[in-house]
Design a protein that fits this description.
Length: 125
């Protein structure tokens, strides 16, 4: 995310419980435009934006939940990552999205830390 949008201090990525974290993307939320990717030798289809639940508001190291009716990061993400903002048909109108859900398109292969990621098909907006 562009610096300054989420409040300081920065939240650790483990708050989102990701299966994969990508570095070196062409810009913030580049994955929103991908419909097919290859990670290492595994091809994957980008299925839908990933809706985020209240667990993202809990410190994963201590188990301490954030304070407030709509705590961070959901409060800030709701201002630019909602169903309305993304123009998606999936989810509730109150859902907040961060990342993408993908599924592999063939059996076999494997993914390892450091594998290259290639966007195979891009969605035009």
């Amino acid at each position: 995310d562009p610096p300054g949008r989420l409040p300081a201090p920065p939240l650790p990525v483990n708050r989102f419980r990701p299966n994969m974290v990508l570095r070196g993307c062409p810009g913030p939320f580049a994955e929103d435009a991908w419909t097919a990717i290859r990670v290492g030798n595994v091809e994957m289809r980008v299925v839908k934006p990933c809706s985020r639940c209240k667990v993202t508001t809990t410190d994963q190291a201590t188990g301490t939940p954030a304070d407030g009716a709509q705590p961070e990061p959901l409060r800030t993400l709701s201002t630019f990552r909602s169903k309305r903002h993304l123009g998606t048909r999936v989810g509730d109108k109150t859902d907040v999205f961060f990342g993408q859900n993908v599924c592999h398109t063939q059996s076999g292969g494997g993914v390892a830390v450091g594998d290259a990621v290639e966007a195979l098909v891009w969605r035009l907006f």
